[in-house]
Structure prediction request, 294 residues.
Amino acid sequence: MNGVDALRVVDLLTVPAIVVVHTVCDDPTDHQRAVLSRVCGKAAAVVVMSQDARHRLSAQYGVPREHIRVIPHGVAPGLIGMCDVRESTTGRTADTTPTLLTWGLLRPGKGIEWAIAALPLLRGSAAGARYVVAGRTHPRVVEQEGETYRHRLAEHADRLGVADRVDFDDRFLPPEDLHLRIKHASCVVLPYDEPDQATSGVLVEALAAGVPVVATRFPHAVELLARGRGIVVPHRDPQATADAISALLHDQPVTPVPVRPAGSPDVSWHAVAARYHRLADDVMRTPAALRDSR
Prediction:
């Protein structure tokens, strides 16, 4: 548990390893800290996807900052700039019912129940918005409890009187279908419960496409939703979530910004792959004695 299997694999390697860390707990148990520190210590290089994760690895786990590379989560090239961010959100949805969108593998902790609870609280042009939850239930959740969580969410929507405004699309969407969903979304909602979520591919994809985002205050959202690219709200707060969605869709539209502001990295998968390729080259050019001394 908590990375022990990964540690066994790293211990058996006879070639340099690059470790990619997706989640970095801010308040780890002693066991979590020991395992992750040891895995990173055996790596020739460590990759994280946000500056916050880099800071946590250094401060909480003792990994030297110079040993950590930040390479952002990639997105499909066709997704970048797909929505016209220069057009106001209200203008883009004036003739249709606003659509809120969350996608990804469904499981407890995604906070979908809080977004559903926000629907009756929406106001202005956001009132009456539909909420699409796209994605299959996580395989481990299905193995343990079947579709119980999805059924609980549907019952929750029914109790709140918004069942007719919540659409559960339980398919694993191919890229073209997912991109179509994103293109027609008025706002992407990421109501995640976990305060330690260091990386969100959904967040990166939404921002790359140019869709406004409302997200809870997890580190990756705080980092990427700066400069008017969306609104960050407290965890488990339907009223704050409703206020933010209403502001984005009507009252106080978010200031449009370029999908890729000056100085920000290219997040297409081609560019991300090139960065990993350069890192691998750097690792292989580093003398073994120097790598082992880290």
